[in-house]
Amino acid sequence: MEAIGHCLSNSLTLSPFNPLKQSPNCCSNAIPLSHGRTLPTHNNHAYKWKKASVRMGAVVGGEDEETKQAKEMAAAKRRWETLIREQKVKVLTTKEAGYATQLSNKVLLDVRPSTEYNKARVKGSTWVPIFDVDNTADAGALSKKVTNFVMGGWWSGSPVLSYDKNFISKVDSMFPKDTDLIVVCQKGLRHTMIVATSQSSHAALAALGILILMSTRRSITEASILRSLAACEQLYNAGFKNLFWVQGGLEAADEEDFQREGAQPFKLAGIGGVSEFFGWTDQQRAIAAKEGWSYSLVFTGRLIGFIVLADALFLGAQQFGPLLQELRSR
Q: In this protein, which residues make up the domain named Rhodanese (predicted)?
């Protein structure tokens, strides 16, 4: 168990994204000093002191909130490690999980969002996502999706996700509490965009051990979470005691470990966006190293085609300007 605990602690490292780093806009809510007005002399000092206090309060308040969230995440990690160390949640490799689902009556509970589940899934598994794609189309949701796209969604293909508050009730309606549940997600550590529409939603996510960057100007939060372990903790607290966690998720699985359904290999179910199109992901590089140049040739062709198309559009734009001027002169 010491080895398992050590291995788990290594697997629980946070994303390189630093949640406690001050944003350049951290003082955006402070009232700027007016450069075009002069206050009466006897009030100048008090006015400036008040402004400085407002600014300092905004910064310190933000730091306190972020520090609080970081502590909640650290506490969640300790709880998860305790669940593993005390074997309240047992650890399985992907190969062991494959044997267990094929040779016994253990249930494989897939907690991934639909974008990953639809690409590749284990035959006979039960799908109950703890987070799923946010499909709302109101103005606020569209703003969140645009923000997610600008912040890297265009590259990674990661959608905006929302926490399903009915996750436990759905699982509870499907299985009795003594069922052997093997919980799996795509990959242990996830870095994703989570929708939190209210203060209560933030509190609920924090209870799951999800690190939240609070912002007064946007309700999208960055989260670094272990989805499957967060699900295990929620299930254990709900009374499910025969729980198993697949370390590394489906991304660590070989094709022979499970019977697969879907068009993509398990390792590629969690990628998307421009990086997937051009083959610039770690998962695709690993496959290319095994399969050789024939696999890379497709992505090389896409890159060359993109360069040719971009060049043609650039040259066309250069020719279009003089042509337009000539037409106007006539």
A: 102-262
Residues 252, 282, single domain; the answer is no
The H or E element containing residue 194 is strand 190-195
Instruction: Tell me how far apart the alpha carbons of residues 195 and 141 are, in angstroms, rounded to a whole number.
Output: 9
* DSSP state, residue 177: T
Residue 131's contacts (CB-CB under 8 Å, 6 or more residues apart) are 111, 113, 161, 162, 163, 164, 192, 194, 227
Same domain for 295 and 262: no
CA angle 159, 161, 164 (to 5 degrees): 155
Catalytic residue selected from 7, 26, 27, 185: 185
Cα–Cα dist 319/302, whole Å = 26
The reply to whether 64 and 181 lie within a common domain is yes
Per-residue model confidence as pLDDT tens digits over 204-251: 444 444 443 333 333 333 333 467 888 999 999 999 999 999 988 999
**Under DSSP, is residue 259 helix (H, G, I), strand (E, B) or coil?**
coil
Q: Work out the end-to-end distance of the chain between its first and last CA atoms, rounded to an integer number of angstroms.
A: 84
For 90-140, give the DSSP string. EEE-HHHHHHHHHHS--EEEE---HHHHTT-EETT-EE--SEEE----SHH
C-alpha 245/C-alpha 81 separation (Å) is 12
Does residue 272 lie in a domain region? no
pLDDT in tens, 248-273: 899 999 989 999 999 899 998 888 88
Distance CA 154, CA 248 (A): 25
Which tokens sit at 214? 């609070």
- CB burial string 321-330: b at 16+ within 10 A, e below: eeeeeeeeee
One-character DSSP codes across 39-69: --HHHHHHHHHHHHHHHHHHHHHHHHHHHHH
pTM over cut 0.90 = no
Supply angle C-alpha 236, 247, 67, rounded to 5: 70
Q: Give dist(CA 192, CA 221) in Å, integer.
A: 9
Active site residue 7: no
Cβ-based burial of 120 (10 A; exposed 0-12, middle 13-18, buried ≥19)? buried
Q: Which domain holds residue 304?
A: 278-317
* Same domain membership, residue 296 and residue 219: no
